[in-house]
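Bug #77: duplicate submission created two jobs. Keeping one. Sequence:
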Amino acid sequence: MDLDISIDEFEGPLDLLLHLIKESKMDIFNIEIEKITDQYLRYIEHQEKLNLEISSGYLVMAAELIEMKSRLLLPRTTVEEEMEEEDPKEDLVARLLEYQAYKEITKTLKEKEEIRKEIYTKAPDNFSQYREEGVSLQGDISLDDLLDAFQKYLRRMQKMKPLKTKVTIKEISVSSRQTDIKKILFKKKKVSFFELFPEFSKEYIVATFLAILEMAKEKELRIVQNNNFDDIICEVVS
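Kept job's structure:
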């Protein structure tokens, strides 16, 4: 086998063993201990001849391989001894498989690291200064709660709608509904959200709902619900 390899090419004795097994085209589950030991020792001797420093881990593995080879070559005195004696290769195979799995994972992580290096990230900006002020809601209520309550109200009113209706053309603007709501609040100071929908038509309901939201946004009224399932109140901002 070509020994023109340096110890710096491997991360440890197990890495070297995997290389030798691969080069010899051995099955990792059926390692030829005698052959692999000879190849490993030739590698160590080659490094020593080149006056290269060899770490203790490589020498410890060499000693283990020599011991395994010796145990395999020694004759067993009885059948019982042969059955009771553990296969010296089992521990080595387990260590090699564990190291091989670790090496594959490390390779994958390194590839992901290289990909990650090409991605630029920055800290998130604070856009609060550009954000428009939202609708003024207080108590245990959110805009989603308001929309949910409004949808339930529409379904209820749809069921109460008379069977026969007279269609009339009437323009309803958001600004006109705002004026009407301001007049109501000027008199009552606070009123149920649903009392602001005295008429049930698509144009009237949409214009009224948008008018309420716009007035809440402009701090002209406040929408309040003190507790869950309580009535939703629209009141003048003091």
